Automatic annotation (TrEMBL):
Pfam (any one): tRNA-synt_1g
Role according to the record: Is required not only for elongation of protein synthesis but also for the initiation of all mRNA translation through initiator tRNA(fMet) aminoacylation.
Residues covered by the tRNA synthetases class I catalytic domain: 17-126
Entry similarity comment: Belongs to the class-I aminoacyl-tRNA synthetase family.
NCBIfam families cross-referenced by the UniProt entry: metG
Cofactor(s) for this UniProt protein: Zn(2+)
CDD domains, per database record: MetRS_core (cd00814)
Name of the protein in question: Methionine--tRNA ligase
Keywords of this entry: Aminoacyl-tRNA synthetase, ATP-binding, Ligase, Metal-binding, Nucleotide-binding, Protein biosynthesis, Zinc
GO BP terms, alphabetized: methionyl-tRNA aminoacylation
Length: 478
């Protein structure tokens, strides 16, 4: 198969605001995308996994000011923290885009020029409530006691002349594409939510601002700056050569998956595909909007300041344990509560006593009873369901099935009592152990997208000339 015959798979994450370092929520989307990228790479596909940072707008400018730094200097420092965090968590993107990069600025200029040429922009007056935390206008009905419920802060009343995009024209075409799954929105409940939102009628949106700080000027009206959300959405195109390498762009576009949180679903499922249609490009193939983590029942956000640092957790419990925990604890697509205590329970239970203990037991017996020498056989369990679940972003189910196999193997050992049986019936014990070694090798293979380090350790151990007792994969944490 030549390179050009390989199926392409282009997957993205939101590009995160650099007003702070990454938190467990930003790690969640990026981790899920990494798992899918690893899985599709293992199937031989030509994968492009993109993440990055959003660096324009008042939100960043204000945070930089508070830190006593210039916006770009502040953005540079925080963008580096995102890269480093992904590295520590074993997340390996193929590209990392920053909205202050030249390639992005040029692409956004071209995008806006095309948008204007499409005849879908017009000048108008806007009056409304703007929340800097969300970087978006809010309807009166969305406010709670006059405050933005997401940021607990009073939005600014903005009245200004802006350029508008005729989003209201796109309802019917979006409905058709969403309903027939040409443009897939997942999970299913989110698709229905978007359909009923569109059916209520879409309003035109402002695509420029008069007052925004640290934002790009409109190419034809230097008094106006580009609304940061449009600048940000376009990263998915600018990263693959929209302005500079049309061949590359045509190869990877449309994106196969945008992984996002449910907070930004309207931007990705309504505004984004409409903008793409306006400039003559195809909408993405699919958007998956996952749920939100809460902490002790409370919303967790950078703005509220009650965040969990994924890097600290990875340093304390290993990156693979954090990856396992986040994808096992809450079914992907649902909201769920997380905490370090919950991580510790999973770590000691599922990892130290579960997979880790099984691996030590089996390698120990192979070394002790058979001098580390055992034949390779086919795994006694069919674990294709694990991979299928990961493929469909049902990570927690895939992990559950894998851990059923761990429990099954433990029960088999407990029942057979090989340490008693080995004197009288060594052949039976040999058969049991070679089956368990095969099962562990298969588990490592199936789990590798989620737990790459652990999978490597298991594989290297089992593929050695002689199998020796393994050190604990997950030493207990008190
Ligand atoms: O919205 N639980 O950036 P952002 C789960 N720049 N996921 C969470 C979370 C939580 N408690 N909190 C945040 C922006 N997230 C824009 C995106 S894309 C073109 C522009 C994750 O830094 C989730 O993926 O506020 C959410 O969508 C994203 O962080 C928001 O990141």
């Amino acid at each position: 198969m030549t390179d050009s015959d390989r199926k392409k798979f282009y997957i993205t994450t939101p590009i995160y605001y650099v007003n702070d370092k990454p938190h467990i929520g930003s790690a969640y989307s990026t981790l899920a995308a990494d798992v899918l990228a690893r899985l599709h790479r293992s199937l031989g596909e030509d994968v492009l996994f993109l993440t990055g940072t959003a660096e324009h707008g008042s939100k960043i400018a204000e945070s930089a000011e508070r830190a006593g730094k210039k916006p770009q200097e502040f953005a540079d420092e925080n963008a580096a923290k995102f890269s480093l965090a992904w590295d520590i968590l074993g997340i390996a993107p193929d590209d990392f885009i920053r909205t202050t990069e030249e390639r992005h600025l040029k692409a956004v200029n071209l995008f806006f020029t095309k948008l204007k040429d499409s005849g879908k922009l017009y000048e108008g007056e806007y009056e409304g409530w703007y929340c800097v935390g969300c970087e978006s206008f809010k309807k009166e009905s969305e406010l709670v006691n006059g405050l933005c419920p997401l940021h607990n802060r009073k939005p600014e009343l903005v009245k200004e002349k802006n350029w508008f995009f005729k989003l209201s024209e796109y309802g019917p075409v979006l409905l058709e594409k969403i309903k027939n799954d040409e443009f897939r929105i997942l999970p299913h409940a989110r698709k229905n939510e978007m359909i009923s939102f569109i059916e209520q009628g879409l309003e035109d949106i402002a695509v420029s601002r008069r007052t925004a700080k640290f934002a790009m000027p409109l190419p034809w009206d230097k008094e106006q700056t580009i609304y940061v959300w449009l600048d940000e959405l376009f990263n998915y195109c600018s990263a693959i050569g929209y302005e500079s390498d049309r061949e590359k762009f045509d190869h990877y576009w449309p994106a196969d998956f945008h992984i996002i949180g449910k907070d930004i679903i309207k931007f990705h499922c309504i505004i984004w595909p409409a903008l793409l249609l306006a400039i003559g490009e195809q909408p993405p193939k699919a958007v998956f909007a996952h749920g939100f983590f809460t902490f002790g029942g409370q919303k967790m956000s950078k703005t509220l300041g009650n965040v969990i640092d994924p890097v600290e957790l990875a340093q304390k419990y290993t990156p693979d344990a954090v990856r396992y925990f986040l994808l096992r604890e809450v079914p992907f697509g649902h909201d769920g509560d997380i905490s370090e205590d919950k991580l510790k329970v999973r770590y000691n239970g599922d990892l130290a006593n579960g997979l880790g203990n099984l691996f030590s037991r089996v390698t120990n017996m192979v070394e002790k009873f058979f001098d580390g020498d055992i034949e390779t056989v086919k795994s006694p369990k069919d674990l294709t369901e694990v991979t299928e679940a990961f493929y469909n972003l049902d990570f927690s189910h895939g992990l559950e099935v894998a851990w059923q196999a761990v429990a099954w193997a433990d029960a088999l050992i407990d029942k057979a009592k090989p340490w008693e049986l080995v004197k009288a019936e060594p052949d039976k014990v040999r058969e049991l152990l070679r089956n368990l070694v095969a099962l562990l090798a298969d588990l490592a293979l199936k789990l590798s997208p989620i737990m790459p380090d652990t999978a490597n350790k298991i594989r290297q151990h089992l593929e050695a000339e002689k199998i020796v007792k393994s050190e604990p994969l997950f030493p207990k944490v008190n």
